[in-house]
Amino acid sequence: MGDLQTEIQKRRTFAIISHPDAGKTTLTEKLLLYGGAIHLAGSIKSRKTQRHAVSDWMEIEKQRGISVTSSVLQFDYAGCRINILDTPGHQDFSEDTYRTLMAVDSAVMVMDAAKGIEAQTKKLFKVCKQRNIPIFTFVNKLDRYGKAPLDLMTEIEDVLGIRAYPMNWPIGIDGQYHGVYNRIKKQVELFAADDSHGQKERESIILAMDDPELKNKLGEDIYQNLLDDIDLINEAGEEWDDGKVANGELTPMFFGSAMTNFGVRNFLEEYLRLAPAPQAHISTEGEIKPEDKEFSAFVFKIQANMNPAHHDRLAFIRICSGKFERNMQVFHMQGNKNIKLSQPQQFLAQDRQIIDDAYPGDIVGLFDPGIFGIGDTICEGKNRFKFADFPVFPPERFARVEAKDTMKRKQFIKGITQLTQEGAVQLFEQPGTGMESYIVGTVGQLQFDVLEYRLKNEYNVDIVITMQPFEVARWLEFKNGSMVKPENLRGADRGMFVNDMKGRPVLLVNNEWALGWIVDNNPDLLLHNVPPDK
Ligand code: G4P
């Protein structure tokens, strides 16, 4: 393996964000096809039945008979090593998706040309924006009717508040585009006939703008419209600005069709040229640069039962600095101990394999005997630092959850505790109710469905979920440091008094108005919408 700097510069680590159905899975598959990681793309049928799938790629795996059941896909293309992280495409929202975005250096936003920006894209975009990472836009489904390209540009600007820079421009009439104008190479790329139904790579016919053939091929009207469009975007459009692209204020925008393979290669190549290599991360000891010699990483995801037959549990780390080597000794900050990293796994499109080394930007799966938590830091040598805290998302929905069959209590506790450690849900205990039932908090409704499904499938426990009317959770502290108990909290009975799994007192109330009452009547109380740092 080459030196650290060369390896870092090769890496591109990103996630694809989109609303369900925009084409994320299809685009991912096509990137694998162009990357040579698979040889024939299959149409991904019936995947909508996989609403609970942990990863959308599970379906690709089933269809293709290849093992990509993982949270990351890695492949090489044109001298780059590409890591694509999965963001589960649930209709609803989960914290898992947010956290994955903490581990990437850039994001690709896939948009359905007919639908524009949809709800989930907007939410995911917000997280990317907070991190100031570059965002690349792929407007998909150009093979059929959609919104006008200019309207889509305006929509990005109005809805997301960032500017768009079209990298290419569709030629022809909506629904019957002939190809695109490549603004960077200043050439026209016309669709070549494709008889493989998108299973193979697609060729383009490339013509220079001044090629006399071009007018013949397009016809007078379309040719003239193209010239007008080019003038318009050059004159009225935003200027290219590397700095604005780098911090996510200007999004390079590509038009294409993942299903028919149009524009996919062009997108991939431009993306790799423009997307950043691994970036520095903030820690308690200042900035940690990827080229720092000593290895460091953080845990951004924990996944139990990836292989239901083995009940294994993997902690996914994102490498931030130095070189990772199998069997290396590292210090686990949160556990305050040295650990040996044996059996690390990495994921190629073809299979899961034990790896010997990895570099900043790479994602490695470590077998986790239950020691890791989300956001934990591991570092090598004499280094002692923690990476900046992971954002915690305050739960907004709550339910009482108990096992249907009380004989299954042990399994129930084991399952729900493990899924909580994974970060799938947040768990609270109501004092006095023992461990018969828990109060579960989530960010979105679907997390309850996932909880129910996984407890049944992985732990063989049926549960009863009783929704609670609360929407707000606050961690409580008294200014003078004395313990908060229901009896010394005025209005505790206006909501539900619970403890989180670390025993910290939390009050659940119906709404902000109810919270206001508590604040007004308990002047000595401090309220936090995430656990206070202890
Ligand atoms: P997702 O992961 O973002 O949820 O989307 P996915 O790739 O599964 O695509 C959603 C649907 O959109 C699929 O159709 C897919 O074939 C289709 N699609 C993806 N890219 C394009 C495109 O460029 N053009 C057109 N016209 N359609 C596209 P489906 O009906 O759900 O499945 P199937 O019938 O294709 O199997």
UniProtKB/TrEMBL annotation:
GO BP field: regulation of translational termination
Is DNA repair among the key words of this record?
A: no
Domain Tr-type G, which positions? Answer: 9-279
Subcellular location(s) per record: Cytoplasm
Q: Give the chief site where it resides.
A: cytoplasm
GO MF assignments: GTP binding; GTPase activity; translation release factor activity, codon nonspecific; translation release factor activity, codon specific
Record keywords: Cytoplasm, GTP-binding, Nucleotide-binding, Protein biosynthesis
Q: Which SUPFAM superfamilies match?
A: EF-G C-terminal domain-like, P-loop containing nucleoside triphosphate hydrolases, Translation proteins
- Binding of GTP: at which residues? 18-25, 86-90, 140-143
A single GO cellular-component term from the record reads:
cytosol
Q: Does the keyword Protein biosynthesis apply?
A: yes
Signal peptide from the UniProt entry: none
Report the function annotation for this chain.
Increases the formation of ribosomal termination complexes and stimulates activities of RF-1 and RF-2. It binds guanine nucleotides and has strong preference for UGA stop codons. It may interact directly with the ribosome. The stimulation of RF-1 and RF-2 is significantly reduced by GTP and GDP, but not by GMP.
To which protein family does this belong? Belongs to the TRAFAC class translation factor GTPase superfamily. Classic translation factor GTPase family. PrfC subfamily.
Q: By its UniProt entry, which PANTHER family does this protein fall under? A: PEPTIDE CHAIN RELEASE FACTOR RF3
NCBIfam families reported in the protein's UniProt record = prfC, PRK00741.1, small_GTP
| HAMAP family assigned to the protein according to its UniProt record, in alphabetical order | Rel_fac_3
The protein's name in its UniProt record: Peptide chain release factor 3
Organism encoding this protein: Pectinatus brassicae
